[in-house]
């Protein structure tokens, strides 16, 4: 395969992948800015995937290792993940198993391993589809569209950026907390009361508030806020959640909005 000729019918993932986008750009059923995390340690192939996905209007995040992948998935919440199994640090199948503790969007495995055992292992761990290398870009893109279609409706794509907690309005975009209900003794026309949160508190709210009513697992919160390797540090979460409740809840001892689900995680209840 010559550079620059990896079109829709060329195969990628061999020894010399091309970085040129395939012809035939935006297809009907346009994905609408879905964010795709590409986890691939082979630089040429990662570049080819990035360019082809961007050419189809996807937002693309890239990771080279399993640890980077877990951290990015937790902090950025991509709409789907394309994952190589042979990574330099953690085996891809373990990455899938770890992701599936808290990540529910589609995962497509891209792998040079083609034995039935490898495929079954990845699918059992929680992958939605399996594409063997070398692969045709057109086929991978078609499978990606298929898993995203299946996932539609189950994921809130337009996540709310504002939430009310007790008397406070929390704006995740401007990072401001203002009093939604004016204090009884507030003089008319005086500026609204505000509240300061720490960067860690904002990171926690970024993960909780866009999913009203949903359980967000402790492992997801810990990985999203502190990074991989912190999944066991549930005491960190307890500490910061207690502080958030003291700041935001009307009665921190009996929270109504920032709820603990014992042994599982936390839930924002509007
Ligand atoms: Ca690899």
Instruction: Give the helix/strand class.
Output: alpha/beta
Radius of gyration: 22 Å
Let me know the number of strands: 14
Number of H/I helices: 8
Unreliably modeled segments: 1-7, 16-31
Number of domains: 2
Most strands sheet = 5 strands, parallel
CATH class (first level) name of the largest domain: Alpha Beta
Report the CATH architecture of the largest domain: 3-Layer(aba) Sandwich
CATH-defined topology of the largest domain: Rossmann fold
- The CATH homologous superfamily of the largest domain: Response regulator
| Overall 3D form | elongated
Mean pLDDT: 83
Terminal CA distance: 55 Å
Q: β content, as a range?
A: 15-25%
What order do the strands of the largest sheet run in, or round the barrel if closed?
Answer: 3-2-4-5-6
Strand and helix order: EEHEHEHEHEEHEEEEHEHHEE
Q: What small-molecule ligands were found?
A: calcium ion
Oligomer status: single chain
Helix residue percentage: 25-40%
Question: Would you write up a description of this structure?
Answer:
34% of the residues lie in helices and 20% in strands. The protein contains 8 helices and 14 strands. Helix 2 runs parallel beside helix 3. It has helices at residues 43-55, 66-76, 92-99, 116-125, 137-151, 199-208, 218-226, 234-248, and strands at 11-12, 35-39, 59-63, 80-84, 107-111, 129-132, 135-136, 162-165, 168-171, 176-179, 194-195, 215-217, 258-261, 265-268. The radius of gyration is 22 Å and the shape is elongated. The chain has a 5-stranded parallel beta sheet, sandwiched between helices. It folds into 2 domains: 5-158, Rossmann fold (3-Layer(aba) Sandwich), CATH 3.40.50; 162-268, Winged helix-like DNA-binding domain superfamily/Winged helix DNA-binding domain (Arc Repressor Mutant, subunit A, Orthogonal Bundle), CATH 1.10.10.10. The chain is of the alpha/beta class and 270 residues long. The model is unreliable at 1-7 and 16-31 (pLDDT under 50). Residues 41-42, 84, 86-87 line the site of calcium ion (CA).
């Amino acid at each position: 395969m010559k550079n620059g000729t990896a079109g829709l019918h060329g195969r990628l993932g061999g020894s010399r992948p091309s970085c040129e986008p395939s012809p035939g750009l935006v297809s009907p059923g346009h994905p609408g800015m879905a964010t795709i995390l590409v986890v691939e340690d082979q630089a040429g192939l990662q570049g080819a995937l990035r360019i082809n996905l961007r050419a189809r209007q996807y937002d693309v995040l890239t990771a080279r290792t399993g640890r980077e992948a877990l951290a990015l998935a937790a902090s950025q919440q991509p709409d789907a993940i394309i994952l190589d199994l042979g990574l330099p640090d953690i085996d891809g199948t373990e990455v899938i198993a770890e992701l599936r503790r808290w990540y529910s969007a589609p995962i497509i495995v891209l792998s040079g391993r083609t034995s039935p055992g490898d495929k079954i292992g990845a699918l059992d761990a929680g992958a939605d589809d399996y594409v063997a290398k070398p692969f045709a870009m057109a086929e991978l893109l078609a499978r990606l569209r298929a898993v995203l279609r299946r996932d539609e409706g189950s994921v809130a794509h337009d996540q709310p950026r504002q939430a009310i907690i007790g008397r406070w309005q929390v704006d995740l975009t401007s990072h401001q907390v203002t009093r939604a209900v004016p204090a009884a003794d507030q003089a008319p026309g005086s500026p609204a009361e505000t509240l300061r949160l720490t960067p860690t508190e904002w990171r926690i709210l970024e993960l909780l508030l866009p999913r009203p009513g949903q359980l967000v697992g402790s492992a997801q919160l810990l990985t999203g806020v502190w990074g991989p390797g912190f999944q066991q540090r549930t005491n960190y979460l307890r500490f910061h959640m207690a502080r958030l409740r003291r700041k935001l809840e009307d009665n921190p001892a009996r929270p109504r909005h920032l709820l603990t689900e014992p042994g599982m995680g936390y839930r924002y209840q509007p």
